[in-house]
Amino acid sequence: MRVLVIGNGGREHALAWKLRQSSRVTQVFIAPGNAGTLEEGENVAIAANDIPGLIKFAQTAKIDLTVVGPEGPLVEGVVDAFQAAKLRVFGPSRAAAQLEGSKIFCKEMLRHADVPSADFHVFKSPEAAQRFILDRYPSEDESVPVVVKADGLAAGKGVIVCQRRRDALDAIDRIARKREFGDAGKQFIIEDRLDGQEASVLAFTDGRTIVTLPPAQDHKPAYDGDKGPNTGGMGAYCPAHIVDDRMLSWIEEHMLVPTVHAMKRSRQPFKGVLYAGIMLTNQGPRVLEYNVRLGDPECQPLLMRLQTDLVDVIEATIDGKLDELGPLKWDPRPAVCVVMASEGYPGDYEKGRQIRGLDEAGALPDVKVFHSGTALVDNKVVTNGGRVLAVTALGNTLAAAKLQAYTAVKCIRWPGAWCRKDISDKARLPPKEDTWRDKPRR
């Protein structure tokens, strides 16, 4: 089987690495890929959003299966286009991908399906939104617990968490007037801020059957202690025991199942990976947002632990046969992923800085260095993005996995390299008593 992976980030490197392990796969192509994906297969110089170019390559190279990594091509309809060309492809349709492509669509669907989430208001003009904030919070000094979100895709950065009135007014200005996130800010949402720990629950679904993966926990803020601006994710670990088996069953019943059913009823059936970003509040789990693909960096520790052939899972999803697949097999050891970033990220950063120590890090036991933002220039690996590497390790305990990941991080260097030092530390927090189960959901 010849497989094409679309994308150039850490998620796509992890997908290519795992797909290459399948006994059924003879060759892996990655479009456009990065310096790391060259270790797993052949890079193809076609942009992830060049849908006609991707289709032409898949036809010419006789690709048997295409796996779409990033959200952009999914929202643009790459799956529909591949299917129209009679090509086998994994991912949701353009209509179903609106769950991630439009936060307004997602929130309205959550409300329609009665899935627990934060209350929200939709705006098209900054003036109306700022009047809403000023009317609702007349005092400049009072707490303003809201989140302002650009409606469209913004590479994980179009969400601004506010503490004070000036924060909310500034967020509206940045999204709707200055258009820091481009056309993603044509419409936007102001929703009530939810407090608690975040968790990521991902599931494969063929539109009828749901196969839920072990929960993971991402670290979105840039700096230790969850300080600083939001990023695309600075690290993750799996499994996240803050979501125990009982809570995971509750999330499946009250969030994933109603969502899949609501999409089917609306004639926008969902096939692929449904990713629920969840806030664990004192009132119970609440959906923050849905993504329509594997998370990055959650994908890396999840695939490090997955022992079932990924091709089998993907094909069962495409063919509507997940109910015949049987339970997935997992390495019992936990995995920790630490993202190494460029100086300045999530703001402006320089590219082209040579990375050293990759071989030394990769030689450590139970370590895999996934490339996110790298390129090969004159046979040297250089930085080519904000999030550069996703250093991932297994360990007999979570503490051992963390130690091994950071041991690998210490091997790697380039000018301006940095990372959070506390990935997985939140797992040490004592669990709260879940008295919310006996309360009304809303």
From TrEMBL:
<dbReference type="GO" id="GO:0009113">
    <property type="term" value="P:purine nucleobase biosynthetic process"/>
</dbReference>
<keyword id="KW-0547">Nucleotide-binding</keyword>
<dbReference type="InterPro" id="IPR020559">
    <property type="entry name" value="PRibGlycinamide_synth_CS"/>
</dbReference>
<dbReference type="GO" id="GO:0006189">
    <property type="term" value="P:'de novo' IMP biosynthetic process"/>
</dbReference>
<comment type="similarity">
    <text>Belongs to the GARS family.</text>
</comment>
<keyword id="KW-0464">Manganese</keyword>
<dbReference type="InterPro" id="IPR037123">
    <property type="entry name" value="PRibGlycinamide_synth_C_sf"/>
</dbReference>
<dbReference type="InterPro" id="IPR020560">
    <property type="entry name" value="PRibGlycinamide_synth_C-dom"/>
</dbReference>
<dbReference type="InterPro" id="IPR016185">
    <property type="entry name" value="PreATP-grasp_dom_sf"/>
</dbReference>
<dbReference type="Pfam" id="PF02843">
    <property type="entry name" value="GARS_C"/>
</dbReference>
<dbReference type="InterPro" id="IPR011054">
    <property type="entry name" value="Rudment_hybrid_motif"/>
</dbReference>
<dbReference type="Pfam" id="PF01071">
    <property type="entry name" value="GARS_A"/>
</dbReference>
<dbReference type="InterPro" id="IPR011761">
    <property type="entry name" value="ATP-grasp"/>
</dbReference>
<dbReference type="GO" id="GO:0004637">
    <property type="term" value="F:phosphoribosylamine-glycine ligase activity"/>
</dbReference>
<dbReference type="GO" id="GO:0005524">
    <property type="term" value="F:ATP binding"/>
</dbReference>
<keyword id="KW-0658">Purine biosynthesis</keyword>
<dbReference type="GO" id="GO:0046872">
    <property type="term" value="F:metal ion binding"/>
</dbReference>
<keyword id="KW-0479">Metal-binding</keyword>
<comment type="pathway">
    <text>Purine metabolism; IMP biosynthesis via de novo pathway; N(1)-(5-phospho-D-ribosyl)glycinamide from 5-phospho-alpha-D-ribose 1-diphosphate: step 2/2.</text>
</comment>
<dbReference type="Pfam" id="PF02844">
    <property type="entry name" value="GARS_N"/>
</dbReference>
<keyword id="KW-0067">ATP-binding</keyword>
<feature type="domain" description="ATP-grasp">
    <location>
        <begin position="107"/>
        <end position="319"/>
    </location>
</feature>
<keyword id="KW-0436">Ligase</keyword>
<protein>
    <recommendedName>
        <fullName>Phosphoribosylamine--glycine ligase</fullName>
        <ecNumber>6.3.4.13</ecNumber>
    </recommendedName>
</protein>
<dbReference type="InterPro" id="IPR000115">
    <property type="entry name" value="PRibGlycinamide_synth"/>
</dbReference>
<dbReference type="InterPro" id="IPR013815">
    <property type="entry name" value="ATP_grasp_subdomain_1"/>
</dbReference>
<dbReference type="InterPro" id="IPR020562">
    <property type="entry name" value="PRibGlycinamide_synth_N"/>
</dbReference>
<dbReference type="InterPro" id="IPR020561">
    <property type="entry name" value="PRibGlycinamid_synth_ATP-grasp"/>
</dbReference>
